[in-house]
Amino acid sequence: MARPHDVETDAERARLRRLVAGASDAQLGQPMPAGWTVAGVLAHIAYWDAFAIYWLDKWAITGEPTAYEAEDTDAANEAAKPLCLALPPHLAAELSVRVAEEADGKVRALSAAMLEKIEAKGPPPFNLSRAIHRKEHLDEIEPLLRG
Prior knowledge:
Blueprint (H helix, E strand, L loop, with lengths): L3 H19 L2 H4 L9 H25 L10 H14 L2 H20 L3 H10 L9 H16 L1
Helix pairs in contact: 1-5, 1-7, 3-4, 3-5, 3-7
């Protein structure tokens, strides 16, 4: 049975996949606010999905979730920006889909017992609904690509 965060995450991953499949290099290279490009933002999405994968893999080994500790997301985003922008556009786009699929699969595989442990610890260091972050950026990218 799909959990609510799985349903919304599946929808946004499908949206990401459609956007990436239909985007040209020129579209992926279009500028976005704050010095980003479409491809750079897609790599940024992959970065934060990889962040979730890190925690999911750690929890799979330890059997215990980690509670949220505030991090400076602005610093993390700015530190990752040069790497995200350096990727060839289609590589960044393909990476966003591949890492999204991996992160979503790991979240979907969480047992009910682990979800209970996560809830008991307080908010996890990432949102189990991977859709929220993707939707924010896809809502910015889609109108830009439509012109």
